[in-house]
Design a protein that fits this description.
66 residues, mainly alpha, 1 helix, 55% helix, rod-shaped
């Protein structure tokens, strides 16, 4: 990506020009950040399910022993 102000070549992920500091692109929008947060929160749901299953198995084993 080239800077529109000074013409310096920058990496594609750069937000600011490494030569003059001009902003090259907009930062992620709040909606994109919210979608990423929602995706991450659904990932932890499977972890909670696993914990619940393990808890039920432990309770079952305790009652089976008694």
């Amino acid at each position: 990506m080239f800077c529109r102000n000074c013409g310096e070549e920058n990496i594609e992920e750069a937000i600011f020009c490494k030569n003059c500091g001009t902003k090259l692109r907009e930062e992620p929008k709040k909606a994109e950040m919210i979608e990423q947060t929602e995706y991450q929160s659904t990932d932890s749901g499977s972890n909670n399910t696993l914990c619940c299953c393990l808890f039920i198995i432990v309770i079952f084993l305790i009652f089976a022993i008694l």
